[in-house]
Write a structure and sequence with these properties.
The protein is α+β, with helices and mostly antiparallel strands and 341 residues long. The protein contains 6 helices and 18 strands. The structure holds pyridoxal-5'-phosphate. Residues 59, 220, 223-225, 244, 246-249, 283-284 line the site of pyridoxal-5'-phosphate.
Length: 341
């Protein structure tokens, strides 16, 4: 099955693989890891995930590497974020070891779907946790299912690293202070769809959201963190309690420090956009999307040349993807081998 895939032309859409893995929390304990093939699941009609949003997820990638090994990028960070999310949504947090064993098993079972080195593609791993007990009143579930599926994902930049235009969405907010913007609740994405869709209808592929209390400070893009390179060469990223802690952003900050850049995690006023030389959106799927301009009401802030990514963002992108594909030494110990080391 896997061999018939046209790796170089793989897109970003869901592609079914042969197996997925599942583990259930019942009678106060996690059971055995089950290997499944039927992509449909059976759920109680009153399950808390369906009515009260006890549903959350993660996203990470496994890479076919230069030395022919297969490794995930920082899965421990995704495990920890799933644990924080589960706690915030009063769900059962799965232990990190279970998360890692399930992800490893999933990738090995679907080895034929791990894109070979050199194709620029990767195997996307999507873990999700749902409350499965029936409750008609608002109540936390007693039982949970942790499921992980995999789908090969193509290289995003097939013809080079191209910048996009962004729009500051002020009609709809993404996350409230002390709300759930800093965790990966499924409901956050339903809540964000209207704002993102509105931006797309206006011709902007991505929307930037401000802090919902004052609309003075930058929070993040719909599904990625905000990062900027200031005109004096510093790496700046917002410090906000309603932003999702991005594994990519944290890793890029470490790389920026390795390069000798000063990293500033601080409140960023919208008006500061005028001081930035380069702006990017970062996350697991695309790694870095360079942003050429940001519209805020009648004002348009532009960064660098219209159809060219900034040099610092390019350098950061090449370094992180080089580490992921095993072309550059894994000096931070980020890669987690799934086959025998
Ligand atoms: C709202 C939001 N911010 C940021 C990110 C980027 O996080 P990461 O780098 O861990 O993929 C994502 C994607 O997971 C996201 O959905």
């Amino acid at each position: 099955m896997g061999k018939n895939i046209d790796w170089k032309n793989l897109g970003f859409q869901y592609l079914q693989t042969e197996y997925y893995v599942k583990c259930e929390f019942k009678n106060r304990k996690w059971g055995d890891i089950q290997i499944c093939t039927d992509p449909h699941i059976s759920l109680h009609i009153a399950a808390t995930c369906l009515h009260y949003g006890q549903a959350c997820f993660e996203g990470l990638k496994a890479f076919g590497r230069k030395d022919e090994s297969i490794a995930m990028f920082r899965p421990d960070q995704n495990a920890q974020r799933l644990i924080s999310t589960a706690r915030r949504l009063v769900m059962e947090p799965p232990p990190q070891e279970l998360f890692l064993s399930m992800a490893t098993k999933l990738i090995l079972l679907n080895k034929a779907y791990v894109p070979p080195y050199g194709t620029g593609a990767s195997l996307y791993v999507r873990p999700f946790l749902i409350g499965t007990s029936p409750h008609i009143g608002v109540h936390a579930s007693e039982e949970y299912a942790l499921i992980m599926l995999a789908s090969p994902m193509g290289a995003y930049y097939k013809d080079g690293f191209y910048p996009v235009k962004a729009y500051i969405q002020e009609e709809y907010d993404r996350a409230a202070p002390k709300g759930v913007g800093d965790v990966k609740a499924g409901g956050n994405y339903a809540a964000g769809m209207m704002g993102d869709l509105d931006g797309q209808k206006k011709g902007f592929p991505i929307c930037l959201y401000l802090d919902s209390a004052t609309h003075l400070y930058i929070d993040e893009f719909g599904t990625s963190n905000f990062l900027a390179i200031t005109k004096d060469g510093k790496y700046a990223t917002p410090d906000s309690s309603s932003v999702l802690p991005s594994v990519t952003n944290h890793s890029l900050q470490d790389i920026a420090r390795d390069f000798g850049l000063t990293v500033e995690r601080r409140k960023i006023r919208v008006s500061e956009l005028a001081d930035f030389a380069e702006v990017g959106a970062c996350g697991t799927a695309v790694v870095i999307t360079p942003v050429s301009s940001i519209r805020h009401g009648d004002r348009v802030y532009t960064f660098g040349k219209e159809n060219e990514a900034g040099a610092t963002l390019m350098r950061l992108y090449n370094e992180i993807t080089g580490i992921q594909y095993g072309e550059i030494e894994d000096r931070h110990g980020w890669m987690y081998r799934v086959d025998a080391a």
